């Protein structure tokens, strides 16, 4: 269904009620429903989300294997060498006491073998026999099913698919995976004052969000469908631009989220009959952010126009929304001690960039609402509660610059 917006607003928006920052993340995630599951080849699954549990189709390993290069031995030595086994090869005979086979790491252990004598511990006599200390039973042997028995759950539904999981799936006998596709996201950057290249002209500013949003969307788990620029005037231009993104799951609007004469987003949402899930968050910066769903099912995430405030808002609402749309659980945030000369915001959560290590996190300077230096140099955002004190614990949202 294509939903048409009115060209102009007909009534002023209702005054928003600020939602606590921690609750805003939960609301954004909980409102989303993942896309229907589909099956894709392993090569197409990277970055998507498992739509069902991943289970081993056979034992891992599938058979007893040598864990070291050496000799698979039976009974006590010295041992007579019967054969040489390499990974991928087979030997149909059975070892008897006093016999061994030369064996490579990963090769199948022959019947009758009790352990592997490492190559560096073995001595080969002039007659070709092998001597060395008797290894205890099972030494340097990976038993069948030691890593996982057949049917074992290797990863739960909702796991994001990365390189290690792709390799695990292949090891477990899978050629395809059931997945939820990453949500498609279109971005709109609003503002008459923005220049898109070079040094900005007098009275204007360089657009920082246009270049940043595709990478940010990808980092948060979405599929960026591009960025379009929308002037503040004429009135109704934003509605037409949102309508133009009819083939996406989420429309991100940067700017136009406040209550000034050029801020159209909330009026647009009211006129469109949108369902608001979050309308202003009790945080600093970024509080005039908004999350709403249009009657045709598309989501609209409104971010402030100032770059650092927009980054905060994206990690507050857009990230949890995309996580929910992808079928992944909302991750718990690590709590660590945070140090730095910053005052908490009265009645609001204050989001500041930090550099994080094993000892805790230190606040990085340069984090005014329009300045991205601190965020670029840090690797996380610390959410400082109103009662936070220097050195006290705070939750971290990982950003990696």
From TrEMBL:
Catalytic function, reaction form: adenylyl-molybdopterin + molybdate = Mo-molybdopterin + AMP + H(+)
One Pfam family in the UniProt entry: MoeA_N
Listed CDD domains: MoeA
Pathway(s) where this gene product acts: Cofactor biosynthesis; molybdopterin biosynthesis
Coiled coil: none
Reported cofactor(s): Mg(2+)
Family matches, as InterPro entries: MoaB/Mog-like_dom_sf, MoaB/Mog_dom, MoeA-like, MoeA_C_domain_IV_sf, MoeA_linker/N, MoeA_linker/N_sf
EC number: 2.10.1.1
Keywords: Magnesium, Metal-binding, Molybdenum, Molybdenum cofactor biosynthesis, Transferase
Ranges for domain MoaB/Mog: 186-324
PANTHER family membership: GEPHYRIN, MOLYBDOPTERIN BIOSYNTHESIS PROTEIN
Role: Catalyzes the insertion of molybdate into adenylated molybdopterin with the concomitant release of AMP.
Family statement: Belongs to the MoeA family.
Protein name per Swiss-Prot or TrEMBL: Molybdopterin molybdenumtransferase
Species, as recorded: Streptomyces lunalinharesii
């Amino acid at each position: 269904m294509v939903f048409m917006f009115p060209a102009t607003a007909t009534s002023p928006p209702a005054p928003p009620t600020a939602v606590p920052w921690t609750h805003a993340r939960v609301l954004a995630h909980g409102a989303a429903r993942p896309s229907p599951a589909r099956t894709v080849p392993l090569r197409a699954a990277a970055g998507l989300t498992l739509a069902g549990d991943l289970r081993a189709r056979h034992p891992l390993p599938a058979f007893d294997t040598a864990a070291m290069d050496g000799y698979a031995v039976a009974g006590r030595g010295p041992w007579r060498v019967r054969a040489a086994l390499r990974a991928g090869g087979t030997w149909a005979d059975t070892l008897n006491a006093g016999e061994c086979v030369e064996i490579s790491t990963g090769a199948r252990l022959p019947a009758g073998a009790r352990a592997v004598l490492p190559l560096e511990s073995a001595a080969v006599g002039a007659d070709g026999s092998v001597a060395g200390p008797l290894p205890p039973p099972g030494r340097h042997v990976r038993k069948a099913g030691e890593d996982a028995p057949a049917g074992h759950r290797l990863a739960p539904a909702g796991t994001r698919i990365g390189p290690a999981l792709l390799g695990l799936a292949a090891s477990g006998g899978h050629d395809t995976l059931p997945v939820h596709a990453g949500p498609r996201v279109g971005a709109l950057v609003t503002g008459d004052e923005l220049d898109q290249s070079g040094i900005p002209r007098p009275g204007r500013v360089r657009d920082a969000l246009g270049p940043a949003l595709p990478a940010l969307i990808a980092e948060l788990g979405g599929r960026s469908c591009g960025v379009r620029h929308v002037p503040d005037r004429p009135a109704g231009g934003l509605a037409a631009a949102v309508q133009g993104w009819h083939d996406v799951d989420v429309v991100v609007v940067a700017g136009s989220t406040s209550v000034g004469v050029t801020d159209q987003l909330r009026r647009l949402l009211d006129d469109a009959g949108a369902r608001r899930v979050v309308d202003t968050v009790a945080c600093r910066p970024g509080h005039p952010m908004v999350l709403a769903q249009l009657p045709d099912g598309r989501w609209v995430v409104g971010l402030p126009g100032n770059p650092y405030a927009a980054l905060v808002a994206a990690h507050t609402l857009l990230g949890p929304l995309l996580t929910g749309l992808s079928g992944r659980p909302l991750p718990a945030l690590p709590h660590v001690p945070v140090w730095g000369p910053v005052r908490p915001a009265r009645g609001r959560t204050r989001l500041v960039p930090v550099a994080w290590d094993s000892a805790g996190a230190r606040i990085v300077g340069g984090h005014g609402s329009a300045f991205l230096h601190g965020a670029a140099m840090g690797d996380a955002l610390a959410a400082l509660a109103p009662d936070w004190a220097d050195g006290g614990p705070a939750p971290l949202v990982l950003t990696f610059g």
